[in-house]
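Lay summary

Proteins are chains of building blocks that fold into shapes. Our project writes down both the chain and a compact code for its shape. Here are two examples, one after the other.
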Amino acid sequence: MSNVLEHYHFLHEIPELGFEEFKTSAYIAEQLERAGLKVTRGINKTTGIVAEIDSGVPGPVLALRADMDALGHIIDGQPCARHTCGHDGHSSVVLTAAQEMLKEGTVKKGRLKLLFQPAEELGAGALSMIEGGALDDVEMILGFHLRPLEECQVGQAVPAVIYSACSTLEATIKGVPAHAARPHLGVNALDAAVQAVQAVNTIHLAPGLTWSVKATRFLCDAGVTNSVPDEARVVWDLRSQENAPMEVLKAKVTQAILNSVAAVGATADVVVLKEMPAAEIHDEATDIIRAAISEVLGESGLTQAKTTPGSEDFFYYPVKCPQVKAGFWGLGTNLVPGLHHPDMHFDINSLEIGVNIFKACVRRVLG
């Protein structure tokens, strides 16, 4: 019997935020070492792990990537970490596949690298792995993600999930404090922030492009109710199906914020909190995944490629390392009510399908 559910249940109970996956990475590394894989811990002085199966025979270098971090939530007023994006499932699948492939002698030529990456949700984990040299010798990298029920059901898999670019911008808006009885002596940062939100809402890109921008956080409190607040912070979430329009959108949003707050006498400092590039997927990698899905699930289990407004820091790998061919697929798990929902859950028995699809991919490249 596969160990995937054993790994999943353990990892699910120890959710940890990005770059804090200490228990998670320790468990994964110990399991890999116990199976006999060569393991390097602490990639780029983080919780990142690289494990390797070397056939000893010349051939390509293929990498499988899994993310490890959980999401931060505020539930019943209490901050907590919770696995609501399925990264515990991702790690369990790649860990189990690695154990089984070493035991079965799947890698007959070249080398297989297993990347267990921290901090995907922060948009910083893939960059950290790249900086740590994890992709220096890799020719192809494959990743995957559990899919929501409306996209893909158990018994199905998506050969290519085409993610969007995203950027998170924060504006710190400065006004001038004053007594609420004498507002003419101050500059109300709350008013300026409202102006900024409305100004950003008037932005337009070309109608043929797929994009969105919306305010997602608004913080302003003078500490009392009879004072004009002198500071407000607003966060915007930006999305674009392509990378080039994202640069245009960021510039338009920044200018709209600066101009609108200046109109009421305030100033703003706009910074990018995090960003992830749009998908860059290679046909060769997708063809391998498509064939593997058909082998495991039959033609009826193979869906069309799907586009999503979600984002993935996985795509820093092909963007920053253009010599690496990237493929990214989706596993049907009957996931509801949705990714990042505090009560997200899915059919965990579907993880076994993920193990088998990854093994079929590796056989096609290194078998």
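And here is the second example, written the same way.
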Amino acid sequence: MNIDEKIQLIEENTAEVIDIEDLEEVLKKKQPIAYTGYEPSGKIHLGHAATVQKLKTLQKLGFKIKILLADYHAFLNGKGSIEEIAKTAEYNMHCFKALGLDDTTEFVYGSSFQLKRDYTDKVYKLATMTTLKRARRSMDQVSRHDDNPKVASVVYPIMQTVDMAALNVDIALGGMEQRKIQMLARENLEKIGENTPVCIHIPLLHGLDGDAKMSSSKGNYIAVDDSIEVISKKINKSYCPQREIEDNPMIEIAETFVYPNQDTLLIKRAEKFGGNIELNKEELLKEYSEGNLHPMDLKNGIKDFLIEFFAPVRKYMEENNV
């Protein structure tokens, strides 16, 4: 596979890659490093699984994958005590392994390096370069809304920037909510003599309730280890406006998970409703937008797919007593 083909594969189902010229140089390395960081703060859901899919693609292209279990970041963001976060981090790590990342994946706890002198020196340097306004703005979609924000909310993005240097990353992967922080990193790391990573951003998934963001704190998610019964219940209750393609959670799941992994989606229907139908991506969008496919039929197709798609996760969690 040549570099252009690799770039095309990397760009699939992303919101943006910043920037392509830098990515071309990264792809010339023998084993470049790609990372993403996750706050251990709850269930691992479809939003996380979307980034894991991209990590698996990068892994197949020869990248070393590092996953930061950002325990101190979770603490700074008010996600629990250090002890509570440690338990969640271990559970999260099992979820990521269950999603199919290979054994070369490196899981790194933030607390394992974020107290070292070299790390804190870089945090202090960046703190002198970053305005309070810029730091707070970078956290708009990451931190919980607080009318009286804590100092922690401006330390957070500076630490995340230094994480990229500490982990020696060539690619930083994250959802679009991470964009402002990653742009902060691209602007400032070079000023302290560190490598500037390529940033890849994944579109945010809408919550099952139609909210702009799927989140474990909002309860509008499907967890990767949800039971068959729970998946069925959540999908049946989900927001799925008739004929609407934009901002429709069921359409987003099809585009993000179904079609990157298989050519068609099987939708089972009673004969009186037209019988079973198998649709590729273009056919699904056309049939649904024209009103030829009922929302409940679409939900049933997505439900059946997710139950099968996450079967290996449920099996892994059961076998490992997680």
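What can we say about the second shape? The chain has two domains: 3-202, 216-320.
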